[in-house]
Design goal:
With about 250 residues, the chain is α/β, with parallel strands linked by helices. The protein has two domains: about 160 residues, HAD superfamily/HAD-like (Rossmann fold, 3-Layer(aba) Sandwich), CATH 3.40.50; about 80 residues, DNA polymerase, domain 1. The chain is about 40% helix and about 10% strand. The protein is built from nine helices and seven strands. Helix 6 links the parallel strand 2 and strand 3. Helix 1 packs across helix 4 and helix 4 runs parallel beside helix 6. It is globular, with a radius of gyration of 18 Å.
Length: about 250
């Protein structure tokens, strides 16, 4: 098996646990400010996460609930884009204020990856502005080779397009890279691109079918903080609650 050379990171739910107390809250604040009389509770948003992309979730919800849009495809697209921009501005303010911390072990793991000489990039369906607020703001000292976000691809996860683009950017083969994901859609996208994956679960994905991931943990863990739980592995791995890059390199070398 070729040597591991790169890690592609999903963002929402992997780098930051953004969904329940981040994106959902920002959507609801935007809905209220723009005059809509509904909000997405935790369960509703969990169901909507099966659809990749914020604009796509709104379109699905509005259609399902019979909420009137303009009725003209171009006008509908403009409206959804406008709403999503307002939501993104609210979300970025939350990120920049420090309300949403990085997930346990993420920065440590990234620093280990840098020390090991691994290349890294971000592959997310999140809006480009919010992706950069995290990758270039909160993680400004981490050397990301690229940040692929938003509408950089025409098809979102579980379509493999974003991971195929990442492979094209690096010039590497799928067996030289791994993906860090949290959801079934993300794992399926990685698999379709020929990539192996490590999954870190969260409240919305802990019960999803992540069996196509090579390793599934509740978090990456920190030596002096929260420890992760090993949920599944395709082969034996020593895990004391903290997953290290050298373990990953060894795991995927065989």
């Amino acid at each position: 098996m070729p040597e591991l050379k790169a890690i592609f990171w999903d963002q929402d739910g992997v780098i930051i646990d953004t969904q329940k107390d981040g994106h959902r809250v920002a959507f609801n604040k935007m809905f209220k400010e723009t005059g809509y009389d509904f909000e997405w509770d935790v369960d509703t948003y969990g169901e909507l996460l099966s659809i990749s992309g914020g604009k796509e979730r709104m379109r699905h919800y509005f259609t399902e609930k019979g909420i009137i849009l303009e009725g003209i495809p171009e006008k509908d697209a403009e409206l959804l884009l406008s709403l999503h921009k307002k939501k993104t501005a609210i979300f970025v303010e939350m990120i920049e204020s420090g309300i949403l911390p990085l997930r346990t072990g993420v920065k440590r793991f990234m620093q280990e990856a840098m020390q090991a000489g691994l290349r890294m990039g971000v592959c997310t369906t999140a809006n480009e502005r919010s992706a950069n607020a995290i990758a270039k703001g909160m993680l400004g000292d981490i050397d990301f080779e690229f940040v692929l976000a938003g509408d950089v691809v025409s098809k979102k996860k579980p379509d493999p397009e974003i991971y195929l683009l990442a492979l094209d950017r690096t010039g590497l083969s799928p067996d030289e890279c791994i993906v860090m994901e949290d959801s079934r859609n993300g794992i399926l996208a990685a698999k379709a691109a020929g990539l192996r994956a490590v999954a870190t679960t969260n409240i919305y994905t802990e019960d999803e079918d992540l069996s196509d991931a090579s390793i599934v943990v509740s978090s990456l863990g920190d030596p002096d903080g929260e420890k992760g739980v090993l949920k599944a592995s395709t082969k034996p791995i020593e895990f004391d609650g903290v997953l290290h890059v050298d373990q990953i390199i060894s795991f995927f070398a065989d």
